[in-house]
Amino acid sequence: MKKIFSKSKKIIKKILRTKEKKYVSVLNLHGVIGKDSKLESGINFQNCEQLIKKAFDQENLKAIALCINSPGGSPVQSELIYNYLRELSITKKIPIYSFAQDVAASGGYWLLSAGDEIYAHNSSIIGSIGVIFSSFGFVDLIKKIGIDRRVYTEGKNKAILDPFLPEQQENIAILKAVQKDIFENFVSLVKERRLNKLNSKDDQLFNGAFWSGKQALELGLIDGIADFRSKMQEKYGHDVEFVKISSKKSFLKNLFSEKTNLVEKFFNNLEEKISFNKFGL
């Protein structure tokens, strides 16, 4: 009987100790946004959904520390991840604190905006609020090497922006209209999240420019200069415990990522390097 009582007492003490602990989930999102494949790294909703859910499912959770290191990418994937973060934050009543690492630009800043408060380092790169489309033109090249390109379509706009055909102003106008719509959605979201914190005119903030963390603070794009550990300890005490949320590769994911699609992986890594190099990283 004494043994049972002693064991029960220990269990109760353990439960009480657990209840007293405070936890912050640290969710790291790194890379170019939009690589929509379970077999590849990068940031997209498919890869992030379960990680985000896991971050919010911790016991005695006080907050989410959302750490972003991304030069941007797909606006659709950015919006999907942003919406899911906000949905869980509201329904579970758990605040999100966003922290920019090396860079949170374009879609990276979109993700950063999911935070109720936004922080960065002095030397972080912040901003690049805009929309970009890039391509190449090979019209003269195929003429020189004697290639006759043949394209058959139904619908007069099906082959617009074909790099092997001359540019047409009406096709560019179609692209610009789409870009404008996406851009206005992005700007609207930033204004909604930053409320009255922005300290500059629209044409200065929303022109695709980027700034250091210190400059971004002056412009009102972030709330302060801090790293996640010191800021969370400031808010929740030095006894707060951090739970790092990371993905675990399955056997199949390891197998395929190591033995197949080597060319695709090379170009994906090259794309990421080029995207970060734009900001000198």
From the N-terminal CA to the C-terminal CA, the straight-line distance is 65 Å
User: So what's the overall shape?
Assistant: elongated
CATH class descriptor of the largest domain: Alpha Beta
What CATH architecture label of the largest domain applies?
A: Alpha-Beta Complex
Q: How many DSSP E strands?
A: 8
In the predicted model, the low-confidence regions spanning at least 5 consecutive residues are 249-255
Query: Quick check: average pLDDT?
Result: 83
Give the biggest beta sheet: 8 strands, mixed
Overall domain count: 2
What does this structure look like?
With 281 residues, this protein is of the alpha/beta class. The chain folds into 2 domains: 18-130 and 183-270, 2-enoyl-CoA Hydratase, Chain A, domain 1 (Alpha-Beta Complex); 131-167, no CATH class. Helices cover 47% and strands 16% of the residues. Strands 1, 2, 3, 4, 5, 6, 7 and 8 form an 8-stranded mixed β-sheet that branches. α2 (45-56) runs parallel beside α3. The longest helix has 26 residues, at 169-194. The chain is elongated.
